[in-house]
Amino acid sequence: MVIPGCIPGCIPGCIPIRTAAEGECAWNGNGFGPHDPGRGRATTNKAPDGFDAQYPIRPDGACEGIKAGERNAAERLKAIQGGLPYVLRYHTAKRKSPEPHAGYKDLTVTVPRDNMSVRELLRTAAQALPGWQATAFPSHMILYKEYRTYTLGQVIWPA
Asked: What string of DSSP letters covers the chain?
């Protein structure tokens, strides 16, 4: 993805701020950036705008590097998350904890083929976790132990 007006990180901080203030950076202040707004974002029912509306995620794109086979679910989720250009949020032991949730800490997940889409991978994980739901939004994806309807989210599993 190429973002017009993108500025290298090695220049003084005032230049990106000035450029963003002049409206040249579509991503600045519009739901895209290093700050994850958190779990509550999905429940606001606020339609995406700015960057998220113009460049929604592509959950059907191949998740390159995720190979077929059996692997610990926690390791698999970290690997998927690490290869995405957007947020994948999932239940952990505690809020903002790197420790995996007890529901998948010792679970083995089987990925049937190499380079599956993120949608397929999350469906596979959720199917192995009774009571868990995978949902895609225009800006991010989630995997939580819940059954919930989101106005702006598309449930991946349970279907």
From this structure: ---TT---TTS-THHHHHHHHTT--TTTTTT-SS----GGGGGS-PPP-HHHHHS---TTSB-TT--SEEEEHHHHHHHHHHT-SSEEEE-BSSTT-SSBPHHHHT-EEEE-STT-BHHHHHHHHHHTSTT-EEEE-SSEEEEES-----SS-EEEE--
